[in-house]
């Protein structure tokens, strides 16, 4: 394989031909993460055929000019081929990034290892005794995920850090709602009774969900800040969302959508929906404490599912969860809310690191931890 920079159009054309990829691996994401340097790379075989692409974000160490090269939820490759011969695919990438001054490489292969269906999880929670997903027998185990994990470790890559809760980078555990071959009625029947009741309650209360524009971003952001204050996380600034919408909309007018749930003109909930081909993501969400009894959050989620189905998506991705299923854990409410959709918990192989300069890599870890 030859790894070299590719043009934006080449990158996008490859993803379009493939059918889907993480939105974090598209050129537009570089336009969102402006504090990082970036480049689009392509993998070419001996015949000069493009076989893979990847968005690399470069985070530089102050004053040293060296960087961490990061491929979030990527690169976009034939991972079965990578697992069979990691050196053929990854060594050219590492050589290119080393020449660019990288002191380390981090990537997150979008390869599944295990899945837990809703029925299995509900039964485990009801029975008690299981604190984490690993304590529950999975619905399915993906052989490719196991093979790739073994191959990466043998090639010198460092496995994801173990530990409870969220960690830096992209989540290893997500919650997804399969949509392929299903109708709206099929999906709605898969929701639990509480979700169905709340959707109906929102309809009866007169909650409507509409498509927003960039002019609505300040209202969305105000609600998002309220949500952050209530739930105890640090909100991103309005400029971040303005940049996100500008970058993604320039790439594809259907890439990102702002949805607003209102009742009698009052904004109750708002979300951002991102779509790349057959995969849709619930990206950011916000809700008001006032008027929660009208279930605006359920209404806007249902509208995102409906739009994903109409667009031909095979997966509606509710993004990250932790690995906890213990009701005493503060993160339990997150998986409990998402479990109501009848979807499945999905474990990916996670983010893998390859230090190229161990001293600088350690220094970067220290620097980032001090930044918070």
TrEMBL record:
<dbReference type="GO" id="GO:0016755">
    <property type="term" value="F:aminoacyltransferase activity"/>
</dbReference>
<protein>
    <submittedName>
        <fullName>Lipid II:glycine glycyltransferase (Peptidoglycan interpeptide bridge formation enzyme)</fullName>
    </submittedName>
</protein>
<dbReference type="InterPro" id="IPR016181">
    <property type="entry name" value="Acyl_CoA_acyltransferase"/>
</dbReference>
<keyword id="KW-0961">Cell wall biogenesis/degradation</keyword>
<keyword id="KW-0133">Cell shape</keyword>
<keyword id="KW-0808">Transferase</keyword>
<comment type="similarity">
    <text>Belongs to the FemABX family.</text>
</comment>
<dbReference type="GO" id="GO:0008360">
    <property type="term" value="P:regulation of cell shape"/>
</dbReference>
<keyword id="KW-0573">Peptidoglycan synthesis</keyword>
<dbReference type="Pfam" id="PF02388">
    <property type="entry name" value="FemAB"/>
</dbReference>
<dbReference type="InterPro" id="IPR050644">
    <property type="entry name" value="PG_Glycine_Bridge_Synth"/>
</dbReference>
<dbReference type="InterPro" id="IPR003447">
    <property type="entry name" value="FEMABX"/>
</dbReference>
<dbReference type="GO" id="GO:0009252">
    <property type="term" value="P:peptidoglycan biosynthetic process"/>
</dbReference>
<keyword id="KW-0012">Acyltransferase</keyword>
<dbReference type="GO" id="GO:0071555">
    <property type="term" value="P:cell wall organization"/>
</dbReference>
């Amino acid at each position: 394989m030859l790894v070299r920079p590719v043009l934006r159009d080449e990158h996008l054309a490859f993803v379009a031909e493939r059918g889907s990829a993480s939105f974090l691996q598209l050129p537009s994401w570089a336009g969102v993460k402006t504090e990082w340097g970036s480049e689009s790379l392509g993998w070419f075989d001996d015949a000069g055929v493009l076989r893979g692409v990847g968005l690399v974000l470069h985070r530089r160490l102050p004053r040293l000019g060296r960087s961490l090269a990061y491929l979030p939820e990527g690169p976009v490759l034939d991972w079965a081929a990578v697992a069979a011969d990691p050196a053929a695919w990854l060594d050219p990438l590492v050589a290119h990034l080393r020449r660019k001054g990288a002191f380390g490489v981090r990537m997150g292969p979008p390869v599944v290892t295990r899945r837990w269906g809703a029925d299995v999880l509900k039964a485990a929670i009801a029975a008690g005794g299981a604190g984490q997903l690993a304590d529950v027998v999975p619905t399915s185990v993906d052989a490719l995920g196991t093979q790739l994990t073994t191959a990466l470790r043998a090639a010198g890559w460092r496995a994801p850090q173990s530990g409870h809760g969220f960690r830096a980078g992209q989540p290893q555990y997500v919650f997804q709602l399969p949509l392929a071959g299903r109708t709206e009625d099929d999906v709605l029947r898969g929701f639990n009774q509480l979700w169905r009741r709340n959707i109906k309650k929102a309809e009866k209360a007169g909650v409507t969900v509409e498509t927003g524009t960039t002019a609505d971003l300040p209202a969305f952001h105000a609600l998002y800040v309220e949500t952050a204050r209530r739930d105890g996380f640090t909100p991103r600034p309005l400029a971040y969302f303005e940049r996100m919408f500008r970058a993604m909309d320039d790439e594809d007018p259907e890439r990102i959508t702002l949805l607003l749930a209102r009742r009698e003109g009052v904004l109750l909930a708002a979300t951002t929906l991102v779509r790349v081909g057959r995969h849709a993501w619930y990206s950011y969400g916000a809700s008001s404490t006032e008027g929660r009894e009208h279930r605006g959050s359920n209404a806007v989620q249902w509208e995102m599912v409906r739009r994903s189905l109409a667009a031909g998506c095979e997966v509606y991705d509710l993004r990250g969860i932790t690995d906890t299923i213990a009701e005493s854990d503060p993160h339990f409410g997150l998986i409990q809310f998402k479990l109501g959709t009848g979807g499945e918990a999905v474990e990916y192989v996670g983010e893998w690191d390859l230090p190229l300069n161990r001293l600088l890599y350690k220094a970067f870890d220290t620097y980032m931890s001090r930044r918070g």
